[in-house]
Amino acid sequence: MGYLKYILKRLFFLIPILLLITLTIFLLESAMGTPPAKYLLVGNPNITPENVFQESLRLGLIDQQGKPRPMLIQYLYWLKALFQGEFGWSLRHPNYSALELFLTFLPNSLLMIIPSIFLSLIISILAGVKSAYRQNSRFDRISMILSSLGLSIPPYWLALLAIIIFCVVPYRLFNFPLFPSGNIISFGKPFAGSFWDRIWHLALPVLVLSVTFVATWTRYMRSSFLEVIRSDFIRTALAKGVSERGIIWKHALRNALIPLVTTVAVSIPWVFTWAIVVETVFSYPGLCRLFYESFFYPTDVSVLQLVVFFFLGLTVFCNLLADTFYWWLDPRIREQRATGGK
Amino acid sequence: MPSHLLWSIFWRRFRRSRLALLGLACLLFLALAFFLGEPLYCWITGCDPYTINVLNRYAFPSSQHWLGTDDQGRDLLARLLLGGRLSVEVAFASAFFSTLFGTFVGLISGFYGGGWDYLLMRFVDYMLSIPWLIIYMVFGWLLFRIIGWGLWPLILVFSLFGWMNIARLVRGEVLLLRNSEYVEAARSVGATTWGIMFHHLLLNSVHIIWPSFATLISQNLLAEATLSWMGMGIQEPQPSLGNIMMREVNPLFAPGYGPFQFFYPGITLILLILSVSWLGDGLRDAFDPRMVFATTSAKNRDSFTLSSS
C-alpha cells in the first residue's frame, strides 16, 4: 500500500512536469517563427491544395473565417494532436511520418544500447569489486587511473581512434578491415545480414559506448563496495566463519549493488545521449543519429519534437525506475517511508 | 585565525595530493601554451591560424608547420593553440557566470526556504536528471537560430543551464549552516540578513563552491568540444578543439594521410579535462571540513598538522 501511494504521488508530480515539457517545446518552436501545429501539415504527402484549409481548421491553426487562432488555442490543439499520436510528417525523409521514422530507428538503437549497458555493468561490477576488495593494490590504482581517463575521453574521439586502429590500419595492411567502420550489416557479401554479421558490425560501437559507463560505474561500485565491507554485518559474518568468497559474492555484493542499480537506472538517458555521437561516427542507422541529423537544414522539427519527447520521457521514467528499485531492494527505505520518516 | 595562515594550511593540504599538483602543472603549461605560445609560435614560423593554402593540405610535420596542416592547408599547431584558447575561454567564462548565479540562488533559496524553495529545488532536480548534452543541443540550436553563432551565445547557453548543481549544493550547505551558533551570534550582535548570507554563509560554503567550479569547467570543456564537433558550437573559420576534430572523418581512408588533425586536439582536450578534474579533486580534499586542525603541542601553537577525524 505504501509503495502504491508513493508511486501515485510521484506520478501526480509528473503531470505538471510533462505539461512544462510540452509548453517548452511548443514555445521553442514558436520562437522559430512557425507555430508548431504547422509542422503537422508540412511534409504531409496526402495533402492537396483543396484540403489545406480543412486540415488547418482541424489542427487549430485557423478559425472558420481563415484568421489565425491565438497561440494558447494553437497550443491546446497541438497538445490534442500530440495525445492522439499525431506527431507530424518528416521534412528530411519525404512520405514518412515522424512516428514511423521513430519506430523504424528505435530498435536499431536499442540493439546497440542494451548490450552496451549489460557489458558495462558486468565489467564495472567485476572491476569495482576487485579494486575495492584489494584496495590500494596495483590493480586498484591502475583501474582508478583508467577510469578517470575513461571519464575524460570524449566518445567520438575514441570512436575515431577505434576506426583507425581496427579498420583503417588493417585495411591498409591486409586490404580487409578487422571490424567494419560503419553501418549495421554488410552489403554484397554472402554472409550479409546473418547473425554473426550483425554482431561483427555491433562490436565496435558497443565497445566504444561502454567505455564511459564502465569508467563511471566502476568508481561507483568501488565506493559502494568499500562502504559495505566496512559495515558491522560483514564483520559478524566473518566472525561466524563465512568464507571470503561467500562474503564477497553473497553478503557484500548484494548490498553494494543497491546504489549501483539506481545509478544505472538514472544514467540510462546518458547512454542514449552518448549514443548520438557514437552512432554518428559509425554511421549506424539508429534513433540517436536520426535526432542529430534532424538539426541539419532543413530542420526536421516534427522528428526533433518526437525524439526530444522520447528522451525527456525516458529521463522521467528512469528516475521513477530508480526510485522503485531503491524501494524494492532496500528494506530500510521502505520502513522509513512507511513510518512517515523523511 | 589570520587568513594567510589558512591559505598556508590549504596549500599544505593541497600539496599532499600528487595528482592535484600534476593537474595544476599541466593546466599552467597548457594555459601558457594557449595564451602566450600561440602568438609566439606564429611570430617564429610566420604562420597564422586562418591562412588557407589548398595546395598544401594534410602536410606532414615540418619546420614550417610543426604539426602539419589541416584539410584546408592551415597550420595545425596555430589552430590547435588558438582553438584551445577559445575552448578554455568559453568553458571558464560560462563556469564563472553559472557559479556566480548558482551560488546566489543557492544562498537565497537555502536561507529563506519555504514554498518557492521547494518548487525551485524540484525544478532543479528535474533539470539535473536530463543529460546536459541534450539540453545544450536543443537550446543552443534555438539560440543560434535566433541570435546567430558565436562565442557569447555558447557562453549564454552554458551559463543558463549550468548553475543548477551548484545551487543545489550551496543550498544544502546553507540549510545546515543557517541554524548554527555563529550565525545566531552574528545576528545577536546586529548583523543584517544580507551580511550573514553573503559574508558568513558564503565564506563557509567555499569548500563546496571551488570544487564544483572546477567540475563545471571540465564539464563545459567537454560540452563545448562535443557541440563544436557536432557543428553546433564554435563555427569555422574560428577553431576550437572540437571543430578541428570534426573535419577528420571524411579523409580518414585517403592514402598518404596521417591522422594528425584528429589526434592532437583529442589529446589536448583529454589532458585539459583530466588536469581540471584532478585539480578539482585536490581542491575538494584540501577544503574538506572533515579534515580537522589539530595543534601538535600546546607550546608550539603555530605549527599545524593534519589529522583526519
Walk me through the structure:
The complex is a heterodimer of chains A (342) and B (309). Chain A has 342 residues and is mainly α. Helices cover 72% and strands 0% of the residues of chain A. Chain A has 2 domains: 1-86; 91-338, MetI-like (MetI-like fold), CATH 1.10.3720.10. Chain A has helices spanning 2-31, 52-58, 71-83, 98-133, 138-152, 155-174, 195-229, 232-239, 244-266, 268-281, 287-293, 301-329, 331-338. Chain B is mainly α. Chain B has a single domain, classed as MetI-like (MetI-like fold), CATH 1.10.3720. In chain B, 70% of the residues lie in helices and 3% in strands. Chain B contains 12 helices and 2 strands. Chain B has helices spanning 3-15, 18-45, 76-112, 114-129, 132-147, 151-162, 164-177, 181-188, 193-204, 206-230, 241-246, 260-287, and strands at residues 291-295, 304-308. In chain B, helix 3 (76-112) packs parallel to helix 7. Residues 293-309 of chain B have low confidence and may be disordered. The interface between A and B is large, with 39 and 35 residues.
Show the helix and strand layout.
The complex is a heterodimer of chains A (342) and B (309).
Chain A: H1 2-31, H2 52-58, H3 71-83, H4 98-133, H5 138-152, H6 155-174, H7 195-229, H8 232-239, H9 244-266, H10 268-281, H11 287-293, H12 301-329, H13 331-338
Helix pairs in contact in A: 1-12, 4-5, 4-7, 4-9, 4-12, 5-7, 6-7, 6-10, 7-9, 7-10, 9-12, 10-11, 11-12
Chain B: H1 3-15, H2 18-45, H3 76-112, H4 114-129, H5 132-147, H6 151-162, H7 164-177, H8 181-188, H9 193-204, H10 206-230, H11 241-246, H12 260-287, E1 291-295, E2 304-308
Antiparallel strand pairs in B: 1-2
CATH class label of chain B:
Mainly Alpha
Biggest sheet details of chain A:
none
* CATH homologous superfamily identity of chain B: MetI-like
Mean pLDDT reading of chain A: 86
Q: Specify the number of helices of chain A.
A: 13
Largest sheet data of chain B: 2 strands, antiparallel
Distance between the termini of chain B: 20 Å
The CATH architecture of chain B comes to: Orthogonal Bundle
Residues in helices of chain A, as a percent range: over 70%
CATH superfamily of the largest domain in chain A: MetI-like
Return Rg of chain A in Å. 25 Å
User: What is the string of SSEs of chain A from the N terminus onward?
Assistant: HHHHHHHHHHHHH
Shape of chain A: flat
